Automatic annotation (TrEMBL):
Classification via PANTHER family: PROLINE SYNTHETASE CO-TRANSCRIBED BACTERIAL HOMOLOG PROTEIN, PYRIDOXAL PHOSPHATE HOMEOSTASIS PROTEIN
Cofactor: pyridoxal 5'-phosphate
Span of domain Alanine racemase N-terminal: 16-231
Name recorded for this polypeptide: Pyridoxal phosphate homeostasis protein
GO molecular function, one term: pyridoxal phosphate binding
Lineage: superkingdom: Bacteria
Lineage, opening ranks: Bacteria, Thermotogati, Thermotogota, Thermotogae, Thermotogales
Keyword Metal-binding: no
Length: 233
């Protein structure tokens, strides 16, 4: 299926206007909010169009797909800031670390160990977010709220990792009902910042609920469908 530049342009324009409106409603500036275009299952052609429309941050969920798209983007000389937003398989970290500015979905010590090992090999300090389980859904990944402080403390021993914030996924419910889950993450970040001032980012909000997340303090929203249309399988 072909991607229309007009379709993407119109969807992106509506999204940016919505971001501006809800940021203003919350007394925030739009430049406080980073937009990550989640391009999983969408081809490099769609990424090229979005890039030409001004998007520079792209997020992928699968390490192998990320690796392939990074290679294609480099061939087209696209200066993309890549984010990894999916569940981490430790044997695929070797594909994630070299490519990504930020890894959103870290919640196990084993992941930290592998990320640190690969980052050391590449001579980089890998920025990560700790994924937090804020909802009652058992299927959601993430460390429990009461255990986040302990994991952040453990992360300090890794010399090639920097924890710069937190991430969560709200349940797929009526958007207004997601507010308490985002608020929990905001409040947790505020407590952690007293000890770890570098923890500033809040990655929360997707196509279904990003405007609520913005009103609750999100600094990074992860948007796929509202930019690219329905996901390709």
């Amino acid at each position: 299926m072909e991607y229309s530049i007009d379709d993407l342009k119109n969807r992106l324009q509506r999204l940016l206007e919505s971001i501006e409106y809800h940021a203003s409603k919350a007394g925030r500036k739009t430049d406080e909010i980073k937009l990550v275009a989640v391009s999983k299952t969408h081809p490099i052609e769609a990424i090229k169009i979005a890039y030409e429309l001004g998007l520079k941050r792209f997020g992928e969920n699968y390490a192998q797909e990320l690796r392939e798209k990074v290679n294609l983007a480099n061939q087209f000389q696209l200066d993309i800031e890549w984010h990894f937003v999916g569940r981490i398989q430790t044997n695929k970290v070797k594909y994630i670390v070299p490519a990504c500015e930020l890894i959103h979905s870290v919640w196990r010590v084993e992941e930290l160990e592998e990320i640190n090992k690969v980052a050391e090999k590449y001579g980089k300090i890998q920025k990560v977010l700790i994924e937090v389980h804020t909802s009652p859904e058992e299927s959601k990944a993430g460390v429990d709220l009461e255990d986040v402080g302990e994991l952040v403390e453990k992360a300090q021993k890794f010399t090639h990792i920097k924890v710069v914030g937190l991430m969560t996924m709200a349940p797929f419910i009526e958007p207004e009902r997601t507010r308490p889950y985002f608020r929990k993450l905001y409040e947790l970040r505020e407590r952690l910042r007293n000890k770890y001032p570098e923890i500033v980012e809040l990655s929360m909000g997707m196509t279904n609920d990003y405007w609520v997340a913005i009103e609750e303090g999100s600094t990074i929203i992860r948007i796929g469908t509202a930019i690219f249309g329905e996901r390709r399988t």
